[in-house]
TrEMBL record:
Signal peptide (residue range): 1-28
The organism of origin for this protein: Oryzomonas rubra
InterPro entries, alphabetized: AhpC/TSA (IPR000866), Thioredoxin-like_sf (IPR036249), Thioredoxin_domain (IPR013766), Thioredoxin_ResA/DsbE_sf (IPR050553)
Name this protein carries in UniProt: TlpA family protein disulfide reductase
The organism's place on the tree of life at top rank: Bacteria
Keyword Disulfide bond carried by entry: yes
GO cellular component: cell envelope
Main localisation: other
CDD domains: TlpA_like_family
Protein keywords: Cytochrome c-type biogenesis, Disulfide bond, Redox-active center, Signal
Amino acid sequence: MNIGLPLKTFSLGLVVSFCLFAGTAAQAARVNDKAPNFNLKDLNGHKVTLDELKGNAVILNFWSTTCPPCIAEIPGLNTLYRDMRAKGLIVLGIAIDSSEKPVREQANRLKIEYPVLLDSEKNVYFDTFGLFGQPVSILIDRSGIVRDKLIGQLDWNSAQIKGKVQKLLKGR
């Protein structure tokens, strides 16, 4: 029995898939690059476009309802948003769940005050920002430049994080 041809075809498929994936990841947003634009719908069905938020400091917080550290950091993110939105801070919670229902239920339960967007296909998460793991937050300054990528659960009310947000609000 000769399995050479199917094995070569399978191997070629893996190489092509890896190259396509690597090419996508290589184009992902990096710190000190302009944040790539995206369009996502919020829980009310309204389209939100990142470019429309230019002039504000923006935190993109990628999370899911099945991620305990994601859920644990939301109350602190709510407080930060409440304290700094009048100064020009916008927080967007970007849920990467495949279904809207658990996101809506969790947002209601946690009383999330900032907009929650749906990235059920994970296009913004994987392709646009090249992210892995959760939670992950992207900090974007007022001029639309990615200033930091923060991985893991954060204390959004710590002096260190508040200092980072103050820099964003100052445009750097």
